[in-house]
Amino acid sequence: MSKIIPVMVFVLSLFGASVSWANGEEARDAVVKIVDAFRTDIVADKAVLANDPALLEKRVDNILAKVVDFDDFSKKVMGKYYRRATPEQRLRFANVTKDTLLKTYGSSLLELDPDRINVLPLGPQGRGRETKVDVDFEMEAGGLLNISFYMESEESGWMLSNVVINNINFGLTFRKQFGVMMEQNRNDIESAITAWRDSLAKKS
């Protein structure tokens, strides 16, 4: 019996690893679908979309709506201040964040080379719920953009929980920025949201 137990533990560990890897591949497949949508619906049609910001924003929204919960993302950005915010303030913050990011990153997608977008094989993963999927984007003007998509499995499918672009953690960066705005506005959430909107608008 004492010899059987280590064998069982070994077999179970292999089974667990295979399940984890399978889940990781599902996350990667979800990212492949996102990237393919960027390539076909945005980058390949850049000549039209460059002159139609409203259509560009709509197409980016259609892609991201399937994989991004902006309410949850906004909750993470607000951090400890989320509980203090009223439902109306939470909704306003989520809408401001979503609208501005769609405009900002929609226009940046037009600079990508559609033939040089590469979803990399899965690398080593952490022990949390997230699966990291790396994608290399090459710009038409030259230069490489590496984006790490952090995916989480939800009831509705694989959802994007965070993004790291060229080693810049956007979820963490945004949370720090909003914290600074709260300090600058004497912890007044309404004023901080307005400052947040103006800050994001300058980057669009």
TrEMBL record:
Keyword Signal appears in the UniProt entry: yes
Coiled-coil segments on the chain, per record: none
Signal peptide region: 1-22
Protein name as annotated: ABC transporter substrate-binding protein
Record keywords: Signal
